[in-house]
Amino acid sequence: MHPALSVIFFTVTAGAGYGVLFLLGISRLTGLTPEASPDQATVMGLVGLALVTAGLISSTFHLANPKNAWRSFVRFRTSWLSREAVFAVLFYPLCLIWLACDWFMGNTALTVVLGLLTALFCVVILVCTGMIYAQLKTIRQWHTALTPVNFVLLGLLLGALILGFMLASQNLPLSRLVSVALGLVIISALAKVIYFYWIGQPAGPTINTALGFTRATVRLLDVGNSSDTFHNKEFGYQVDKVKLIWLRAISLTLMAVLPLLLISGVFGPVGSIALLIAVLSAYAGVFVERWLFFAEARHVVNLYHGFQRT
Amino acid sequence: MKLGLVIDLDTCVGCHACAVACKQWNTSGTTGPLTDYDPYGENPAGVWFNRIRSYEVDDYPNNKTVNTPMSCMHCDDAACVTVCPTGASYKREEDGIVLVDQSKCMGCNLCAWACPYGARELDEDSGVMKKCTLCVDRIYDEALPVEERQPACVMTCPTSARFFGDFDDPNSEVSTLVRERSGYAMMPEVGYNPVNKYLPPRQRPKAPTIEKKEAATGQTLIGKWMKRQKDAFNDFGKGAR
Ligand code: SF4
Ligand code: SF4
Fold it and tell me: What is the CATH T-level fold of the domain B3-199, as seen in this structure?
């Protein structure tokens, strides 16, 4: 699949924002951010919301006809994209009310409940985003439960690192958050490795089942078009194997290995500098990961264009 | 009603006439135009509802060229409809035709990603999704003579490899053809239940090739005699059992 930068930026950045807001939402209950004053909590929440907003704006650049984007709320019953849109819009008032409560009233029962509700929304939206891809039976590299799992984990990972950096730069205690981030780094790297292994197994339709000639070899003679088509541009994207392996290694190093070393204290005490580097590295790593998510996906329509299998 | 096409892979010669007729009719039809971005230039890319690809099936000397025209299959379980967030993509209750409402589409491409058959193409010029309409603006047009109320591709096919009709009627031409010629669906394992069916090429004896002639005539007399003895030996006693 063609890796569109607007969509990659959207899923990574908005994912990070939802990650920040999820952790903040549960922080009053779990004590992830002890000693954060209402002011500080609200400002950190607004940073998360800003990330979400930047991502959502970028997502509209992917639409060929954005003036109809408002119509995307109508197919809530069947379409994951519609569900994502509905939840993303409902999220704003909810999140703002919660942050306002926190700011005006501090740590009350209402704040805790609203925070938990916001956190729930964050996960639901991340799952919806993942399901937009995972629902497609036509792309076996996406049609797996690992896809939404991955979207949730990487969103939370980036969120944890960003929140950690914000706490550290305000000299707030962050030992609990760092433990959470450590757990997330390890689990999300594992999930990613399982995913790479899983998509390496041959499966799904072949050129034979695509055309119905299952008892003989089939080769493409003539694709029938002499210039570009929508299919070539959208589905024909291919990267060579060696480059893919390098990019996988780079992405895992940047999103997992380096942050792991930085926040586990191997390079000395975990301060705001270490966390800043971890944030930048993980963001770049997840960006490469998301690029690969698209570039490695092979749509079944390629079978009609001569691929023997996807 | 369940309207759709049957395409005979035995008779299709891959002339692309159906694709051209489709483009000609539909560019001024309900979902037109079928934009070409650079029609007289280097790279005349553009929107088509119907594309024909050619394949070689099996290996020499049993190989055969098969031409496959493909357009929207108007699937029974069309995920291109359910994934669409705007409601622009829909399937008609009354005849099963899958259409895109051009005024509602936001051009997100998701339906094209969901289609296994490459039937949907985004018009980069208008920013909306386009696809085969089964010539919905021909088949019900009472101003046309009855025999012309068929999709443009079916009307134009010079080898009559294309048939249009109602698959819900067991006695329609399309249902009969599918029954009698073992019509099949492409890529059924994806589970979309495409309505359009394809008739496989008929079985014919292999065409004689140079190698076969040599094998038939190049034997020595003694070799032929030995083969006769061997066959007789192998056949010995077969009748008794
Ligand atoms: S062929 Fe593609 S566009 Fe047509 S109904 Fe099936 S899934 Fe939808
Ligand atoms: S491109 Fe248009 S028709 Fe297709 S899913 Fe998006 S809004 Fe619906």
Answer: Alpha-Beta Plaits (3.30.70)
